[in-house]
Design a protein that fits this description.
CATH topology: Beta-Lactamase
Shape: globular
CATH superfamily: PAS domain
Structural class: alpha+beta
CATH architecture: 2-Layer Sandwich
Number of strands: 5
CATH class: Alpha Beta
Largest sheet: 5 strands, antiparallel
Helix content: 10-25%
Number of domains: 1
Radius of gyration: 15 Å
């Protein structure tokens, strides 16, 4: 999965992809920078579970078993972030791993209700 399009590589949000066995198979530039203190790109090939607590490990297992997504916001280092974790599927429709998008939300970001 290292042959991602340029737009993903340089995307301003962190994109981290794992396979079904919890192994990180791709990190874009922002993901590598976000996790630099933990090893950055050297994390490719390591387990997602190595850096998560028991609650998070259970969510990872559920997403890999059932598909679906886990979405929430956090405040970290003075930044509000949207975390979007979702199963991805292979060509046969089977869950093949997880994708996590981490996006910094600007202060005062507008919210619109559209009909």
């Amino acid at each position: 999965m290292s042959d991602m399009p340029d737009w993903v590589t340089g995307f301003p949000g962190a994109v981290t992809v794992s396979d079904r066995d919890h192994r990180i198979v791709y990190m874009n530039d922002r993901s590598a920078a976000t996790f630099e203190k933990d090893g950055g790109l050297a994390l490719i090939g390591s387990s997602l579970k190595a850096c998560h607590n028991e609650r998070s490990k259970a969510i990872i297992d559920r997403l890999l078993a059932e598909g679906g997504r886990n979405v929430y916001t956090i405040d970290k280092a003075g930044q509000k972030k949207l975390i979007f974790q979702s199963a991805w599927r292979d060509g046969s429709g089977e869950v093949a791993g997880l994708v996590e998008l981490s996006l910094v939300l600007p202060e005062g970001m507008p919210h619109y209700v559209r009909g």
